[in-house]
Automatic annotation (TrEMBL):
Residues 183-276 form the Methyltransferase type domain. GO terms for biological process: methylation. Pfam families: Methyltransf_12, WHD_Rv2258c. This is Methyltransferase. The lineage of its organism: Bacteria, Bacillati, Actinomycetota, Actinomycetes, Mycobacteriales. InterPro entries: Methyltransf_12 (IPR013217), SAM-binding_MTase (IPR053173), SAM-dependent_MTases_sf (IPR029063), WH-like_DNA-bd_sf (IPR036388), WH_DNA-bd_sf (IPR036390), WHD_Rv2258c (IPR048711). It comes from Nocardia jiangsuensis.
């Protein structure tokens, strides 16, 4: 007799969980259709919040009307669009526009592009699930990295200069004077480029292990007109940073590093005595029971599909997305030789910000 047969199951509990599981599957489908809307420019075409018919939208976007009509139905059923059956029109409500259609702190188009990129990695991750090891960072598609840049653009374009830095007066004063700044795990360079635009007296260097991201960062710096004070280098800094710096930053980097202890030790060694290390990482707890709900579930899923597996692919620690919470951050930073780890007060469901000094 199976364990299930031995138990007396409550049919109402079974039915309730079945309903939840079906709803979760429906959410996955809605997210997939939302990715299509981002990929095909459909949300941008709906951004004026004016009613439009499916033939009109098909002509505007260069898409097939029959497919588009089915997509519109899916998005209406999920509550992302409204539908006027009499006029046969569809409308993107104004409150949905900044989330789906235009660049803003609330925009999640980059998240959808990144998830679109991750869908192509499922077979690779399934394989290492059985064998151990991991999927290396250079196996991931361009959509993943471009999507991450778009998703984090809200931080660097709106939160870093206007919200975070004003809470760090000593660090911001150093930037205004003209600091030597290093960004580790710089990706496609957006954070340094924004800092260089706002604080032109500084000298900025970005380091990353992904050559394609470094090439994109260099092109972006040239396009922004800041290449005279921003440079990028493809380098694993866990063995040491070249030079020393007034300000060092990591933005959602330490938790998926192959050698987080090595990176923190390198930062400590390269940070000048009165320098400041600005560390943004995931808002989570070191206790699984505290990490509940949709956001935590998303973190753990991304960990399996990227953060943990890319670290393990290089023989790394495999901390995972939730692997550098405040408890661990304080422990590892103290072990690296830092004297002060200050959590910056801010309300953010995704991230915690720390100012760390000698």
């Amino acid at each position: 007799m199976s364990t299930t047969e031995q138990l007396e199951l409550d049919p109402a509990e079974v039915q309730a969980f079945a309903g939840r599981a079906v709803a979760d599957a429906a959410t996955w489908m809605a997210t997939t259709m939302t990715m299509f809307g981002d990929r095909l420019g459909l949300w941008r075409a709906l951004a004026d919040s004016r009613p439009v018919t499916s033939p009109e939208l098909a002509a505007r976007t260069g898409t097939d009307e029959r497919y588009l009509r089915e997509w519109l139905a899916a998005m209406t059923a999920h509550g992302y669009l409204t539908h006027d059956p009499g006029a046969g029109t569809y409308l993107l409500p104004p409150a949905h526009v900044p989330v789906l259609a235009t660049e803003s702190p609330a925009h999640i188009g980059g998240l959808h592009q990144a998830l679109y990129g991750l869908t192509g990695m499922l077979d690779r991750v399934l394989a290492v699930f059985r064998t151990g090891g991991g999927v290396p960072i250079n196996a991931y598609p361009r959509d993943w990295f471009e999507g991450l840049e778009r998703f984090s653009a809200g931080w660097f374009d709106h939160l870093l200069p206007q919200v975070w830095l004003p809470t760090l007066p000593e660090l911001e004063a150093a930037l205004r004077r003209g600091a030597d700044v290093a960004d580790i795990g710089c990706g496609r360079g957006r954070a340094l480029i924004r800092l260089a635009e706002r604080y032109p007296a500084g000298r900025y260097t970005g380091f990353d292990v992904h050559p394609e991201s470094i090439a994109a960062a260099e092109a972006a710096a040239r396009a922004a007109g800041v290449a005279d004070r921003v440079r990028f280098e493809c380098l694993d800094v866990s063995g040491g940073l070249p030079g020393d710096y007034d300000v060092i930053t990591t933005f959602d980097v330490v938790h998926d590093a192959a050698d987080p202890r090595g990176i923190l030790a390198a930062i400590h060694a390269a940070l000048r005595p009165d320098g400041r290390y600005l560390c943004l990482d995931i808002n989570s707890s070191h206790r699984l029971e505290d990490n509940r709900g949709p956001v935590a579930a998303y973190f753990y899923g991304v960990s399996v599909l990227y953060c943990m597996t890319t670290s393990l692919a290089h023989g790394g620690a495999g901390l995972g997305t939730c692997g550098f919470p405040e408890h661990t951050a304080r422990e590892l930073c103290t072990a690296a030789g830092f004297g002060t780890v200050r959590r910056v007060e801010m309300e953010n469901p995704f991230n915690i910000l720390y100012e760390i000094t000698h």
